[in-house]
Design a protein that fits this description.
The chain is mostly helical and 363 residues long. The relative contact order is 0.23. Keywords: Membrane, Transmembrane, Transmembrane helix.
């Protein structure tokens, strides 16, 4: 147990310290890495939404995917697979993003916000944990998206190729790609460093299997704290990194935190929706990104859902801002929770009905 902690904490710490360095070099404060925010920025850069303050082809995302792709190829773990309820995965990814943008951050950014003193992240953590508990209950009742199957090799290369295309567009800056001139989208670390960090993090997460949802889920469901110690490592090393590199932005408070709001109810409910979706999908946004690099087309479909959710959130006024949560955002979170739970219970009912029907036939 001690040996496991000694390995997992510093491995998670790599992500934590690199996130603090990205902030020092230009990424938004409390957002050295935010998978949801980065997909939102990429969606904006591609013109899927026109919120001009959040449009940038974040090179960290291609780095995550390509880092996982390279390591999985070298280790023989690159396995093209998919076909496990793709439409439902798209919908779950869509609503996961809605919840994240109401909270203003993915589960990873939640940890990084907390490590820089943003106490609003505590409310998000409670909501995320509650959502994971709800997700565990659904799993115990029989929820499943089904098994994936082996796919043609080329299908596994689609997300790595998509990542290369993003990097090409970022370098060449064609006229049909949008770039923010102000706001969070304009705040960025140098391209080469951001890409290098993405590659390193992608490789590390691929090898460690770290997942924010998985860490909390396994601790509750299996009393296995292996991955949870990795999350602790992210927090501790990010905290150290912020104190060393970003002391001017470190502030323990609820108010006046960068790219955050202190509407506690909706921070809680937004991350509750994220927690439920992450468990039902089998991984948080970071984990889905790494799986996509390993050839998992189900994870790729989830990413398309995330990007569509980001576009929808900004096109229809669902995303929060430092001013607070929008009325549309509040309605969307409630609708999201209802739809996600309806999907889960419909599957559970179908599974139970099938089993009961099977028993009747045998008797």
């Amino acid at each position: 147990m001690v040996e496991s902690k000694l390995k997992t904490i510093p491995l998670g710490g790599i992500l934590g310290i690199l996130s603090a360095i990205l902030v020092k070099l230009g990424n938004p404060v409390n957002m050295g890495v935010c998978v949801a925010c980065f997909y939102r920025d990429i969606s904006g850069a591609m013109g899927l939404h026109r919120a001009d303050v959040v449009q940038y082809l974040r090179p960290e995302i291609p780095g995550f995917i390509l880092g996982a792709f390279i390591i999985s190829k070298l280790s023989g773990e690159f396995k093209p697979r998919g076909g496990s309820s793709p439409i439902l995965r798209f919908v779950l990814g869509f609503f996961l993003m809605i919840g994240a943008l109401v909270f203003l951050g993915c589960p990873l950014r939640m940890i990084l916000r907390l490590s820089n003193g943003d106490l609003n992240a505590l409310t998000g953590l409670f909501g995320y944990s509650f959502g994971i508990i709800v997700g565990i209950k659904l799993l115990k009742e029989g929820f499943s998206l089904g098994k994936s199957t082996k796919k043609p090799k080329f299908e596994g290369y689609i997300m790595p190729l998509f990542s290369v295309a993003i990097l090409v567009f970022l370098i060449t800056k064609p006229s049909f790609i949008f770039f923010s001139e102000s706001g969070p989208g304009s705040m960025k670390a140098p391209f080469i460093i951001s890409l290098a960090v993405g590659l390193i993090v992608g490789a590390v997460i691929q090898r460690t299997r770290l997942c924010t949802a998985g860490g909390i889920r396994d601790a509750i469901l299996l009393k296995d704290f292996h991955f949870l110690w990795g999350l602790v490592g992210i927090f501790i090393f990010s905290l150290i990194g912020n104190l060393l590199f970003n002391p001017q932005t470190f502030k323990i408070a609820f108010i006046d935190q960068p790219i955050a709001h202190n509407d506690h109810l909706w921070n809680f409910l937004g991350m509750t929706l994220v927690g439920i979706c992450s468990v039902l999908l089998g991984g948080c946004p970071l984990r889905q990104t790494i799986l996509a690099g390993e050839g998992d087309s189900d994870a790729a479909i989830t990413i398309l859902g995330l990007m569509s959710g980001a576009a929808f959130a900004h096109n229809f006024g669902l995303a929060s801002s430092p001013k607070g949560v929008t009325p549309n955002g509040k309605i969307a979170v409630i609708i999201g929770i209802i739809i996600v739970l309806s999907i889960a219970y419909s599957i559970i009912y179908t599974v139970k009905s099938t089993k009961q029907g099977g028993v009747k036939v045998e008797s």
